[in-house]
Design a protein that fits this description.
It comes from Dactylosporangium salmoneum. Keywords: Methyltransferase, Transferase. The chain is of the alpha/beta class. It is about 25% helix and about 30% strand. The chain has helices at about 5-15, 35-40, 75-95, 100-115, 130-135, 150-155, 195-205, 285-290, and strands at about 60, 65, 120-125, 140-145, 165, 175-180, 205-215, 230-235, 240-250, 255-265, 270-280, 295-300, 310-315. The strands form two sheets. Strands 5-4-3-6-7-13-12 form a seven-stranded mixed sheet, with helices on both faces. Strands 1-2-11-10-9-8 form a six-stranded antiparallel sheet. Strand 1 (about 60) and strand 2 form a beta hairpin. It is globular. The chain starts with a helix and ends in a 17-residue tail after the last strand.
Length: about 325
């Protein structure tokens, strides 16, 4: 028996009452992507998965570790600002990402699948660079971000837009949306197939019937390349940033170790390192998670600058109930 209707009803009740969301259960063939680490990092959101503790030093949260010298003299607030500044310098200056074009392309993809879409939730929204453009295409937009320095930067940028604090695996909001996006490979921070299923189920629960989910996945095991060291630099006249990164692989786990040097006139040079751990899920694992969440019309779409795709899917609309015929039986 098909239980999609029961699952949709459960999600409806949970979004209204604040109960626990239903969790998940326990693509096309991959071309090997010959990209440098730097090219991969263009699609990686630098500081998604952490909160900083009050003490300096070694900070661990989910799939992200941050190390900074305990005696470097910077306050926790200042270091939080460094993280958000580094994120934006790397992507808007060094990588030259065109957030406006990407937001408009994503809007077109959503409207092709849901022409009346008027609301959007961007999960793991970072500093709100995409949302700053989505707000002009949808009547209502919101964001969700786990990393508090990034969320604060998004709030500062997006006057009047709600940016929730929350984890993509288990957040609960009080409304649903015409579209839900999870960009920059943030889905790769799920640490297991179970967490992938849980995350996709949570994203789907916040879609209206007919709503569109758009994911940008992390690399598959066949696409990942370990070993080379790569460097990115950026400056905006006041700040100068250098980032060096090396990648490793252990089974289906990829690790990126990044070292930052941020120099700023009047404050000197600051250093910290980050270690990001992301899971190399297969296309089939993404496909299964999406289908288990009650979504259909799953499509693999071209990515921005490499062979890595984007994934879209649509939440099923409820079948209309037709009352049984109560008149006289038809004549034979």
């Amino acid at each position: 028996m098909d239980d999609r209707g029961d699952r949709d009803g459960l999600r409806d009740a949970e979004l209204v009452t604040g109960g626990d969301l239903a969790a998940g259960g326990t693509g096309p063939g991959g071309h090997r992507v010959l990209l440098s680490i730097w090219e991969r990092l263009v699609e990686l959101d630098v500081a998604r998965r952490y909160h900083l503790s009050p003490a300096a030093g070694h900070v661990v949260h989910h799939a992200m570790t941050i190390n900074r010298p305990a005696d470097e003299g910077t306050t926790n607030v200042a270091h939080n600002q460094d993280l958000a500044s580094a994120y934006e310098l790397i992507y808007t200056v060094a990588a030259g990402k065109d957030y406006q074009r990407e937001a408009y392309d994503i809007t077109d993809l959503i409207r092709q699948r849901n022409p009346t879409a008027d609301s959007l939730l961007d999960v793991a929204c970072g500093t709100g660079l995409h949302l700053s453009h989505f707000r002009h295409s949808f009547a209502h937009v919101e964001g969700l971000e786990l990393a508090e320095p990034m969320r604060k930067a998004a709030i500062d940028r997006l006057d009047g837009i709600t940016v929730h604090a929350g984890d993509m695996r288990d957040f609960r909001l009080t409304r649903r949306f015409s579209a839900v996006t999870c960009l920059f490979s943030s889905i790769g921070y799920a640490r297991s197939v179970e967490e992938l299923n849980q995350t996709v189920d949570c994203l789907a629960a916040h879609l209206e019937p007919g709503g569109v989910l758009l994911l940008e996945p992390w690399f598959t095991p066949n696409q990942w390349i370990s070993g080379p060291v790569d460097t990115g630099t950026a400056a905006d006249g006041r700040r100068h940033l250098t980032r060096m990164c090396v990648s490793h692989q252990n089974g289906t786990t990829s690790t990126l170790t990044m070292h930052y040097l941020l120099g700023e006139t009047g404050t000197g040079i600051r250093h910290w390192s980050e270690e990001h751990t992301l899971t190399l899920f297969t296309d089939e694992q993404y496909r299964q998670a999406i289908r288990q969440a009650g979504l259909h019309d799953v499509q693999w779409l071209p990515g921005w600058g490499d062979l890595r795709p984007r994934i879209s899917a649509v939440k099923r609309r409820r079948a209309r109930f037709t009352a049984p015929h109560s008149g006289p039986a038809p004549r034979p």
